[in-house]
Amino acid sequence: MSAPRRERRKADPELSDPERLYVITGDNDGERAALDLVTMVVSQADPSPTVQPEQAAILRLCRAPLSVAEISAYLSLPFSVVTSLLTELLATELIESRAPIVRAALPDRSLLEAVMHGLQKL
Amino acid sequence: MDFRSSDTITGPRSEDVLPTTATAAVKVVIVGGFGVGKTTMVGSVSEIRPLTTEETMTQAGVGVDDNVGVESKTATTVAMDFGRISLSDELILYLFGTPGQERFWFLWNGLFEGALGAVVLIDTRRLQVSFDVIGRLEERGVPFVVAVNTFPDAPHHPVEALRNALDLPDEVPIIDCDARLRASSRDVLLTLMRYLHSLAVPLG
Ligand SMILES: Nc1nc2c(ncn2[C@@H]2O[C@H](COP(=O)(O)OP(=O)(O)OP(=O)(O)O)[C@@H](O)[C@H]2O)c(=O)[nH]1
Ligand SMILES: [Mg+2]
């Protein structure tokens, strides 16, 4: 093949430690909870008249579990706007959140088996 | 911020509502150069109509010409397609198909961090459009597989020639796919999971 050839790059320890990166992401502006695109959110209460309209909408949407990415999509609000709204709702315990299962230095084989099992049913 | 009245917000269709047991989520990122089929792949395996999330990225730029030393900030809105697969009552897989400008993907906090792995889609007519993203995944230690999207007039290269051109280690899977087909896209994801599983086997 006479096409151009790529050159392999080395893992950069500064960039490649998932756990370290995770901390940086969460601490970005000091105030925001470490919410991932796929943190799952569930409401714990019905909206009261005192919450902002955006937050009331989140509480209604999340009667069944939804990811932060889905909330952002349904509300047409940027991811970072949604995470600040969620941070307040978390602080007042109006929602509950479940962090995603993330890549670890040593992959979790039983998790990967569960993913494969689910994919095979598709 | 302009916000639509919450009465007009459409949430998931009733068949897309997740059970209350759905509490564990994992994600996979689908990357590759412009027009290689990322959105198509997300759409073909997703159980929901693909959705779009967006983020505003602020990039500090360098002043131009006579403004040497003056910093300008440019805000760019980056939109990203994603889909969802319920793997069981508890476990949900989210697939993110990254958009056009790859330098922005890696600025999006939380997109690659924690992803189980990535699928790099390539189009053999334009291999080099995926070079940079492969390098960035390597730098970040994100494990990936390469899926060769079969466009009708694309040249077919033996896997070893592709591996050589992409300078990939022997263990990185390279497979053919048709991103338009659900079964084919699912097989790509299965290949990624098997590869991740093999990385979990202690060496020696
Ligand atoms: N023949 C064939 N066409 C495909 C395949 N995958 C995608 N296409 C077509 O290629 C075009 C580009 O696909 P997209 O899914 O939009 O590509 P993309 O990577 O999301 O593109 P950008 O987001 O613009 O970078 C569309 O017209 C698809 O229908 C494939 O496997 N085979
Ligand atoms: Mg696209």
From TrEMBL, chain A:
The domain of life for this entry's organism is Bacteria
InterPro entries membership:
DUF742
Q: What is this protein called?
A: DUF742 domain-containing protein
TrEMBL record, chain B:
Keywords annotated in UniProt = GTP-binding, Hydrolase, Nucleotide-binding
The protein's superkingdom reads Bacteria
Stated family: Belongs to the GPN-loop GTPase family.
Report what the protein is called.
ATP/GTP-binding protein
Phylogenetic classification of the source organism: Bacteria, Bacillati, Actinomycetota, Actinomycetes, Kitasatosporales
